[in-house]
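Before a computer can learn anything about folding, someone has to put a protein's shape into writing. The outcome of that step, for a single protein, is printed below:
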Amino acid sequence: MMEPTYGTIQLSSGFQPDPHEIDLRAGGSLDASEKLGSNCPGYVADAPDYDLMYDSGSGSLPLIITVRSAYDTTLVINTPDGDWICDDDSGPSHNPSVRFDPGSDGLYDIWVGTYERGSLQDATLVISELSSSED
């Protein structure tokens, strides 16, 4: 696996501040649907945008990974179990969001995609354990 473009964070259950936010440029030249199937839309980079090492502690809190952007973005996550999770519009304002209830211990590789090949757009990756009133 390639090194993440925007870094790696280790977060343990109850982390502060919550949410943890990372500004990045979404998109890339790889068609996620060609690699992961038609339920995985968008163009992403070769390398993950961000890596999350998560320690769930008691395992009772959800782990919510969302993108906030003025552009139409997608989310691709490789979970600690090796599963691939993709989302387009499950979050607020048609932004992508994935909720793990509860979050699992381990490495989450995260990509933020766009619908235009090679188009890099401003976005904020949001990692939280708190349910939002916007959900």
User: Anything to note?
Assistant: The mean pLDDT is 93. The chain is about 5% helix and 45% strand.
